[in-house]
Write a structure and sequence with these properties.
Elements lengths: L27 E6 L3 E8 L4 E2 L4 E4 L6 H15 L4 E6 L3 E2 L2 E2 L14 H9 L3 E5 H12 L8 E7 L3 E7 L2 E3 L8 E2 L2 E2 H5 L1 H6 L4 H19 L3 E5 L6 H12 L4 E4 L6 H15 L1
Parallel strand pairs: 1-5, 5-8, 9-14, 14-15
Antiparallel strand pairs: 1-2, 2-3, 2-4, 6-7, 9-10, 10-11, 12-13
């Protein structure tokens, strides 16, 4: 797990920043960089809703820093520009510098992403881990709204993304999908993609998720788990199987914001950085 970084955009609190959460008269855009697509929209930070069409452009291949920055510039142009911009990347980000690379080119490692996007866009840009951004959005506007204590969000998709909060404050870059479970990375055992690739039924896969949550529960003793990713819409299909192996009564709920969480969280980080 990466060390929390108090100066990073990813250390944003999930409660409203001083001066309100709506961004005033400023236009705030969130950009979510993924392995297959880069998505962006203007975000209303008073409500957490998208205030524009969500625009998507295919992720360039190779997804080098310069190529992705060019796509972000195009997205901003199509949205009519912005005063403040936040960008998520599938990577550990410390003080604006990318330390790992998942589903993007390895040349990202060591890149000062804050400086990269600031040069490309002509304005300061907040850059943070994609799972952390989704967690910020859920804590402000979704399933974690108003919750205190320890909250863990696990996003089950191609891998397993994680976001951990203590009394509303994010502990960035936790990367709990890389905990070892059954001799492998947990995400290679229990991600949603594994269910599809190995043709697992809800019961068998639910048991795997339960074992994963049991391990995280023992490490963090959270008061709430939020399950993100597309499979969160079907939580009723497998939750009882999760409980069979979780051996805990910790509350587990589905995420609310689904595929717009990254965009909203990126915009929140941009607003927080501008207010700090």
């Amino acid at each position: 797990m990466s060390t929390p970084d108090s100066s990073s955009a990813a250390s944003t609190r999930s409660d409203p920043a001083p001066g309100g959460s709506g961004g005033g008269d400023h236009t705030v855009v969130g950009v979510d960089v993924g392995g297959s697509g880069v998505k962006a929209a203007v975000v209303d930070l008073a409500t957490g809703e998208l205030a524009s069409e969500r625009i998507r452009i295919e992720t360039p291949h190779p997804a080098t820093p310069e190529a992705v920055a060019a796509v972000v510039v195009e997205l901003l142009d199509r949205l009519g520009g912005a005063d403040r911009v936040g960008v998520t990347v599938p990577a550990v980000v410390q003080r604006g510098v990318v330390r790992t690379a998942a589903n993007i080119d390895d040349s990202w490692v060591g890149t000062d992403a804050n400086a990269l996007f600031a040069r490309a866009l002509g304005r300061p840009t907040a850059v943070l881990n994609d799972a952390d951004a989704a967690g910020l959005a859920e804590m402000r506007f979704g399933a974690g709204r108003g919750r205190t204590g320890v909250v863990v969000m696990a996003t089950l998709g191609t891998g397993i993304g994680s976001a951990v909060f203590t009394d509303g404050r994010l502990v960035p870059n936790t990367e709990l999908g890389h905990l070892e479970l059954r001799g492998m990375d947990a995400e290679d055992y229990a991600a949603a993609s594994v269910r599809e690739n190995e043709h697992l039924g809800w019961k068998k896969w639910g048991h795997r998720v339960g074992r994963y949550l049991r391990m995280v529960d023992r490490l963090f003793s959270p008061e709430l788990f939020i399950i993100g990713g597309g499979v969160s819409k079907h939580l009723d299909h497998y939750m009882h199987h999760v409980r069979d192996k979780m051996h805990s009564d910790t509350e587990v709920v589905p995420a609310h914001l689904l595929n717009q969480a990254g965009i909203v969280g990126a915009a929140l980080a941009a607003q927080e950085e501008a207010s700090s």
